[in-house]
């Protein structure tokens, strides 16, 4: 059977890059989106369009999807994976960092959803997978705004599931635990970064890899369209 178009945001590193390789290995044409084009192009995947797009730019996000659909047909799977984590003490964190997380992590996800939902409803098929976080299920110190953004992603996902399931469209929330990627690198406080790294080492919850998350997501997508894994929490076995 001909494999359908998969759109992956945040494909220039971490989970998104592993997802791109996994879906490409099984023959899907891809649209990869992130700001760093060179990283995505370096993957050199067949039947793949890479575009430098900021997901908070609704128009550019939508346009990239429409252009890829001209080439590969309608989007069957959108993985809203792009995100930033700027950890900070709520008492002192610069509110610009709160806004950045809301714009990218929450509105970026909603921008992507709106770009594909109409077509999916019309053709009664398709899947949207939104990457929330275990920090969208549980609170953690220094995570106030990040938690707010990831709880919001879960809320949006669960609401969209109610709106789209009558149209046979699957909407899935994924809540990964801590995995070593570039994600921590954007936090501006060295003290918080060091504390996070120490916790990962001392807890032993540092064995899970981005590829494990990518494979789990692919498993959820590969189930029949009539079967919905609504929500999945995946973490290192040793994470609390
Ligand atoms: P990375 O930092 O490795 O990857 C994040 C990706 O998002 C990059 O490709 C980055 O690309 C992209 N991105 C960031 N901002 C934008 C933007 N404005 N527009 C387009 N793309 C953007 O982190 P992970 O792979 O770990 O994270 C992926 C997702 O998983 C995130 O949503 C994160 O919150 C979530 N997550 C991660 C966990 C972890 O421990 N690693 C745990 C739970 C959830 P570029 O900079 O080129 O734009």
What does this 3D model show about the protein?
This protein is α/β, with parallel strands linked by helices and 240 residues long. The chain is globular and about 50 Å long. 45% of the residues lie in helices and 15% in strands. Strands 3-2-1-4-5-6-7 form a 7-stranded parallel sheet, with helices on both faces. The model has no long low-confidence stretch (mean pLDDT 97). The chain has one domain (5-234): NAD(P)-binding Rossmann-like Domain (Rossmann fold, 3-Layer(aba) Sandwich), CATH 3.40.50. Helix 2 (37-41) links the parallel strand 2 and strand 3. The chain has helices spanning 14-25, 37-41, 58-72, 95-123, 144-164, 190-203, 210-222, and strands at 5-9, 30-34, 48-52, 75-80, 127-131, 170-176, 231-234. The chain starts with a strand and ends in a 6-residue tail after the last strand. Residues 9-16, 34-36, 54-56, 81-85, 104, 131, 133, 176, 178-179, 181-183 line the site of NADPH dihydro-nicotinamide-adenine-dinucleotide phosphate.
Structural class: alpha/beta
* CATH topology heading: Rossmann fold
Under the CATH scheme, which class? Alpha Beta
Strand arrangement within the widest β-sheet reads 3-2-1-4-5-6-7
| Fourth-level CATH superfamily | NAD(P)-binding Rossmann-like Domain
Q: Gyration radius, to the nearest Å?
A: 17 Å
Number of helices: 7
Question: Can you tell me the residue ranges where pLDDT is under 50 for at least 5 consecutive residues?
Answer: none
Chemical compounds bound to the protein: NADPH dihydro-nicotinamide-adenine-dinucleotide phosphate
Total domain units: 1
Order of helices and strands: EHEHEHEHEHEHHE
Name of the CATH architecture: 3-Layer(aba) Sandwich
Question: Helicity, in percent?
Answer: 40-55%
In whole angstroms, the N-to-C terminal distance is: 42 Å
Percentage beta strand? 15-25%
């Amino acid at each position: 059977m001909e494999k359908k178009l998969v759109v992956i945001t945040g494909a220039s590193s971490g989970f998104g890059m592993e997802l791109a390789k996994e879906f490409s290995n099984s023959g899907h044409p891809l649209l990869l989106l992130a700001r760093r084009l060179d990283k995505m192009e370096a993957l050199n995947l067949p039947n793949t369009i890479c575009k430098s797009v900021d997901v908070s730019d609704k128009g550019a996000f939508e346009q990239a999807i429409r252009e890829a659909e001209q080439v590969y047909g309608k989007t069957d799977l959108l993985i809203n994976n792009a995100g930033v984590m700027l950890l900070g003490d709520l008492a002192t964190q610069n509110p610009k960092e709160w806004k950045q997380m809301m714009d990218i992590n929450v509105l970026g996800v909603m921008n992507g959803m709106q770009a594909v939902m109409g077509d999916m409803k019309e053709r009664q098929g398709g899947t949207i997978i939104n990457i929330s976080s275990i920090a969208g299920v549980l609170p953690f110190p220094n995570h106030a705004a990040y938690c707010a953004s990831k709880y919001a992603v879960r809320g949006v996902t669960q609401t969209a599931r109610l709106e789209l399931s009558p149209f046979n469209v699957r909407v899935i929330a994924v809540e990964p635990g801590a995995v070593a990627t570039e994600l921590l690198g954007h936090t501006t406080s060295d003290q918080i970064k060091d504390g996070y790294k120490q916790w990962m080492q001392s807890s032993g919850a540092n064995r899970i890899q981005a590829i494990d998350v990518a494979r789990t997501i692919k498993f959820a997508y590969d189930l029949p369209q009539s079967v919905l894994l609504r929500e999945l929490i995946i973490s290192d076995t040793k994470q609390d």
